[in-house]
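Design job #97: recover the sequence.
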């Protein structure tokens, strides 16, 4: 006898199937597939599986409502938050705008949530995007005054939208690095050598015989049995991986292509190999940084200044044995990054993020700017909100005395990041002190405390020592939730692409929003 549809067992199994469809991005027709229905009958013969219409029209909307309530409850605990946003087109060329939110909860965990993937048929002007983003925050009850920063790509319309809303914006490090690499590719030598790589990879990609011969040549020359990598136009890292793999397999590639008179012309010359090696020497070390800075489950923004410092003093510093092309590439990339991160407001933001990271503090802040950053931090601690202060080089008391006056700012296994940068603090006794003196002492004690280990998680440190430095810890929650890249929004694109497949191209925008939301937040 089948279960009653109101029974606990029937509801539990139905909910489990609903979760499976949502989390694993499976088509609703899955529940009508012969194999799936047979599996369910073996698991529990008494359970009668509902049809796809029930899941699409009832179960999924109900699950969306439940998860949305949980997300709304989590958002209530966010004293400050950061966001990322981007626009993309589905397989059916329907435009969407995604929004993700990031904050540090009371347990000092970095929470990342996908809020929505809204259908956006309007022209993608700065004004329309600004209104769309503001409406999105309002629909979730998120006040713009609590938003610390939004991380986006370098699209002019998105930049304008942030300006129109009066939001602090951080440029995506990944997009900036990608733009720097694109400048390198303007060199005709690089362009030609990369073109040779693409032709070589294409020759093997469309021929099973050449793949077979490549495997035999790898065996003969005792090379790693790796496949060649094809470039993905939107990811510079894939181009670098393609170059690296061609260099790794050059002996096997030469062996296979030389045997066929139709492909002999594709064999890379020694000049091509020299150029590819120069490219690899300059850009290969950057791959790990892009991947590491793209994480959303750990603090990344406070690493931007240390990474830029490391690029300038080590990774992209010219070496004696560098070729002329390698030196040119390093100079081009570093020069571009310096130019794009030279904005005073952005520099202040990154300095503040470093200040509240117990691993770095003022280590990467320019000497002449340290007093200004300390003054800015003290003002924010006193006001309980982000403040604008005058840049001064005198003692902090001078700036603190003018705290009531707001002055406009100047115009505007992968390795962990910590592995590239190779003690108990005292409690601040502020009894009998004025608010200003208490804040000054607390910040001073925090800066004098031993730095956290470079491999440690700053949020774990703050979880232990927030009682020692309560005001500074609030600043830490404010700044350390900012994302160094807009990768969280781009991951939403990938999720959307896995949902709006060829077989599901008729999904309505509301269903896409619900399914992406569930896949990212369940």
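Job complete. Output follows.
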């Amino acid at each position: 006898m089948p279960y009653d549809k109101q029974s606990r067992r029937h509801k539990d199994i139905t909910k489990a199937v609903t979760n499976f469809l949502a989390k694993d991005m499976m088509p609703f027709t899955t529940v009508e597939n012969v194999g799936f229905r047979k599996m369910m009958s073996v698991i529990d013969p008494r359970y009668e599986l509902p049809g796809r219409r029930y899941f699409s029209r009832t179960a999924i909307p109900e699950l969306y409502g439940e998860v949305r309530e949980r997300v709304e409850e989590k958002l209530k605990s966010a004293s400050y938050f950061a966001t990322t946003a981007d626009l993309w087109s589905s397989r059916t060329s329907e435009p969407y705008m995604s929004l993700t939110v990031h904050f540090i909860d009371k347990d000092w965990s970095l929470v990342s949530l996908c809020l929505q993937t809204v259908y956006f048929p309007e022209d993608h002007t700065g004004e329309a995007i600004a209104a769309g983003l503001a409406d999105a925050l309002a629909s979730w009850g998120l006040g713009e005054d609590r938003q610390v920063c939004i991380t986006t790509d370098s699209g002019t319309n998105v930049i304008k939208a942030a300006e129109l809303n009066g939001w602090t914006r951080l440029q995506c490090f990944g997009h900036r690095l990608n733009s720097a690499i694109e400048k390198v590719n303007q060199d005709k030598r690089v362009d030609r050598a990369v073109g040779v790589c693409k032709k070589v990879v294409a020759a093997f990609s469309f021929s099973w015989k050449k793949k077979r011969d490549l495997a035999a040549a790898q065996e003969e020359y005792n090379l790693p049995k790796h496949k060649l990598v094809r470039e993905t136009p939107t990811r510079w890292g894939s181009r670098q991986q393609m170059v690296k793999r061609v260099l790794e397999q050059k002996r096997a590639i030469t062996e296979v292509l030389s045997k066929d008179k139709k492909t002999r012309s594709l064999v890379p010359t020694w000049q091509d190999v020299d150029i590819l090696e120069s490219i690899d020497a300059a850009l290969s070390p950057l791959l790990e940084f892009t991947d590491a800075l793209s994480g959303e489950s750990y603090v990344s923004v406070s690493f931007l200044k240390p990474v830029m410092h490391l690029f300038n003093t080590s990774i992209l510093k010219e070496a004696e044995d560098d070729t002329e092309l390698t030196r040119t590439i390093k100079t081009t990339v570093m020069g571009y990054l310096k130019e794009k991160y030279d904005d005073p407001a952005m520099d202040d933001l990154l300095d503040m993020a470093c200040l509240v990271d117990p691993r770095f503090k003022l280590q990467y802040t320019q000497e002449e700017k340290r007093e200004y950053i300390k003054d800015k931090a003290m003002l924010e601690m006193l006001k309980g909100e982000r403040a604008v202060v005058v840049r001064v080089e005198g003692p902090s008391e001078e700036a603190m005395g003018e705290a009531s006056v707001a002055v406009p700012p100047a115009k505007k296994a992968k390795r962990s990041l910590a592995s590239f940068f190779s003690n108990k603090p005292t409690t601040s006794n502020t009894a009998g002190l004025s608010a200003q003196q208490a804040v000054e002492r607390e910040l001073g004690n925090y800066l004098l405390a031993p730095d956290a280990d470079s491999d440690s998680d700053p949020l774990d440190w703050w979880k232990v020592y927030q009682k020692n430095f309560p005001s500074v810890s609030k600043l830490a929650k404010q700044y350390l939730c900012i994302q160094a890249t807009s990768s969280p929004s781009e991951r939403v694109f990938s999720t959307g692409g896995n949902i709006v497949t060829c077989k599901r191209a008729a999904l309505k925008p509301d269903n896409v929003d619900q399914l992406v939301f569930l896949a990212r937040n369940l």
